[in-house]
Amino acid sequence: MKVTLPTDVTLSYDIHGPEDGPVVVLVPGQHQASLFETMQVPQLTKAGYRVVTFDLRGVHPSEETPPPYTVELLGQDLAALNEALELGPCTYIGYSVGAMILLELAMKRPDLIERAALIGVPWKPGKLQQAIQAEAVDRLKNGHKVPALLEGVFRAMYLFGPRALNRDQFIAPYLDGLAGLAESGGHGAIGHAEASTAFRPGDEEVAAIRVPLLVVGMEHDIVAPRHLSRELADLIPTAEYTEIRNCGHASLLEKPTEVNALVADYLRSGKVGVPRGSRRPSEDRPEED
Fold this sequence. Notes:
- By secondary structure, the protein is of the alpha/beta class.
- The chain contains 13 helices and nine strands.
């Protein structure tokens, strides 16, 4: 299904599950919502939730409007989608760029959020992630092409944790899939890369958030380093932090069982336990963090 929004974009969306179920909106990262639909939607609909998935501006089959994009603009798209579908205040789950969009929504449109889970939110990137972002923007703007295998290996190295990278049965199928992303480009790729690079909310602005949030960090995440995810949760009085052990940024692929357990626990009670493979921030906290 598609809807044209007051923000001058047409977005593709789907609604899954029972009509009378509590609404959960899944906010994807830079690539298709199909990742959520494969890994999370079946579990959520089985539990009785009405699940809304959509593709961001710039990601087919949503409209690929020309850049520049900003996280503020993507947040306005999300607010407009909520209002067009008449969802009202509801629960959101965002991953990566989607988590950044939810952080923006929590700052600007808290009236639309009942609660939200932010998984791997790169709100304040470290030096390595800044370099990755700058390289992506430069390469895309200049039309530089990277060989598919090299692109796949590069993405795998910064998306997955060391244990997954050393498990052939895990990494082999995804090398082919990630390599295919080398051909992703155009307006959406440039727009999302620029938006991610420019998003730098201030500590005071973040600390003013008062909607309930769950911030989920990953132990080996270099896109959204765990100590910065903890810092985000510490700034927000209504936020809780939890962490997935032995996992890189791509937790939806690497640890789908743990992600689903965290999400289910959070949706059921508004709090999280500590599923196998995950931990509280106080456990095994490294000195340098």
